[in-house]
Amino acid sequence: MARTAPDCLFCKIVAGEVPAEMVREGERTVAIRDINPQAPTHVLMVPRDHYPDAGAVGRADLGLMDEIAREAHEVAVVEGIAESGYRLVFNTGAGAGQTVFHVHGHLLGGRGLEWPPG
Fold first, then answer.
1. CB of 109 within 8 A of CB of 40?
2. How far lies 83's CA from each of 5, 78, 109, in Å?
3. pTM value?
4. CA distances from residue 7 to 11, 13, 17, 53 in whole angstroms, order as listed
5. In the annotation, is 104 catalytic?
6. Which position among 42, 73, 102, 104 bears the catalytic label?
7. Which runs of consecutive H residues, i.e. helices, occur in the chain?
8. What would the pLDDT profile of 63-114 be if each residue is shown by its tens digit?
9. Residues 6+ apart with CB under 8 A from 54
């Protein structure tokens, strides 16, 4: 049985109740375009099951973070950024910039993302 939260935006997107631009759909994840992109390619990697943050996934569902990373790479290949490089970021907690409390990875690429920024 899938874990969902009734008031969660990403749970509603996964259920098809809220529209989003789907990039890829996997068995346990979906990839959607970010509505406020921070890079030319900015895709959100969202698990179908609800976990509030990356720490919760790590404690509860061994293998899901691996699957998110694999799916992110597949999206990067299709988007043409796998060779040049991409970033996969998980914000965990409000202090880190998390605004939707359903774990999701931000796949960013298509421009220089050197660290530290300069």
1. yes
2. 37, 11, 10
3. 0.92
4. 8, 11, 11, 16
5. yes
6. 104
7. 9-14, 54-60, 64-79
8. 999 999 999 999 999 999 999 999 999 999 999 999 999 999 999 998 877 7
9. 65, 90, 92, 103
